[in-house]
Amino acid sequence: MARIKLDLPEHFPFTLELRVRITDVNYGGHMGNDSLLGMLHEARVWFLAHYGLNELDVFGVGLIMADSVIVYKSEAFPGEMLEIAVGVTDFNPYGCDFVYRATEKTSGREVARAKTGIVFFDYARRVIQRVPPAFRELFAADAAPA
Fold first, then answer.
1. Neighbours of 123 (CB within 10 A)
2. Which domains does the chain have, with CATH numbers?
3. The dihedral sign for the CA sequence 21, 112, 117, 32
């Protein structure tokens, strides 16, 4: 089976630090995949909040996840501080990709690369919506395809 390759942009407009908790550790003694996906979700929430937005109100519409990809580069262990960089790339008429790079803060060791495919969504009507122009404009300079 071919391995997934995930290219990331050079610049990320936002970074959040999160510590690996003991509850994030699996039977292998390292952070579990489910915990990393949760950390990416938290980073996305804080990223949006940085711009005065939230997942249910991005210039009048919500977000819904269409897909996710995580490429692991190294293990992460309890007590380590991760820097999770977040950006927006690859717009289409109804969505975009949020991209992430997780690195261990002290050493700079890359832990993972990830993307979550996002679709804009009207939760009241349960229908997909077009990307709000104000959101696209907010990230136009950073949103070249990854």
1. 13
2. 15-142 (3.10.129.10)
3. negative
From CA 114, how far away is CA 33, in angstroms rounded?
Answer: 11
Q: List Cα–Cα distances, 7 to 11, 12, 18, 107, 131, in angstroms.
A: 12, 13, 23, 21, 23
Q: What are phi and psi of 77, to 5 degrees?
A: -125, 160
- Note the pTM of the prediction, 2 decimals: 0.93
Measured distance CA(29)–CA(35) in Å, rounded: 13
pLDDT above 60 for 144: no
- 87-130 residue pLDDT tens: 999 999 999 999 999 999 999 999 999 999 999 999 999 999 99
CA torsion, ordered 22, 14, 73, 23, to nearest 10 deg: 10
- What single-letter DSSP state applies at residue 23? G
- Consecutive H or E run containing 46: helix 33-50
- Neighbouring residues of 84: CB distance < 8 A, sequence distance ≥ 6: 15, 16, 17, 18, 39, 40, 43, 100, 101, 102
pLDDT of residue 146: 44
Q: What is the pLDDT of residue 140?
A: 82
